[in-house]
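ok trying this again, last paste got cut off
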Amino acid sequence: MKSLRLYQTVTLATAFSLLGAVLAGCGGQQNQPSGSPSSGQQVGGVPKEPPIAILALQAPWEPAFQKLVDRYQQQTENQVSVNVTPFNGMLQKSLNAVQSPQSEFDVLILNEQWYAQFDADKMVTPIQQIDPNFTLDPQGIEYQYATRWNEKLGASTKDGQLYGLPINGNIQLFYYRKDLFDQKGLSAPKTWDDVEKAAQTLNDPPTLNGFAIRPNPPGFEFQSILYSYGGEIVHLDEETGQWSVEINKPQALQALQMWLTLGKEYGPKNIASIGQPELIGLLGGGKLAQAGIVAAAVSDLGDPQKSIAAGKIQAVPVPVGPRFSMAQSPVFG
């Protein structure tokens, strides 16, 4: 066991190209635990460091993350281990890591749904308290400043302190079986009404379901519909600092009704148990005509070794609802 050298490094969403910054952040002497200084030697411009342990989520993007870790090791000769944990156990493992005096992890990769708890409860430290000279690459995307925390407002804002490094911007896309759509003369869905029309046309259970939702957990996929209808869960007025509950508004109810209709009328019977792996499996297994899934699913859905529908699936932006005239691809890390 070792002290958590970088227990303040909370990463959530953006480009994999910043992995080097994350790992390098484990390195400066100001980040080292007592008794574990950097050797001063450098390989590829990076100091030689003690082994680095990362806690990562079991997700479709994880293999790509591992490849970048491997490249980092080759270029720097630093040793890095990645502990891959299922979604349902990731939050508790992360909490244990930051609340214990000793931890087996140096870097945590946090889901976008969780980082606020770590920032607000001061379980993590602003990165610039560790390295005052650190700045994000100006080309990096911060996704509505999810990397930052404004203590006064209790929210992520542009002027908040930097707590996390963006790693994986896993945008939501809409996948559909182009071969089946072409057979029925259907175009790629642009609105949720288009989605329902296609679901009605293609639904042929148990051979094929016209659509499926992801209720386990529901946040990622449902929110893409919620936002397109002009709904929110909560809303912050940054000028007044006041929060308001929005999930009880009419537009949120409309979105929920559409989501449930698509799932119940055209989806598999085991609706409540469908999570991301099941959704990818249904589409890749030829059992599903269309679904909203994260962009990282492309690697599985396009691999003939993993998907019998490889080459038949296309992806488009998330369909629009009453609020937007442009397609939306929300990001959920």
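PB: full thing came through this time. The chain has two domains: 10-162, 172-316.
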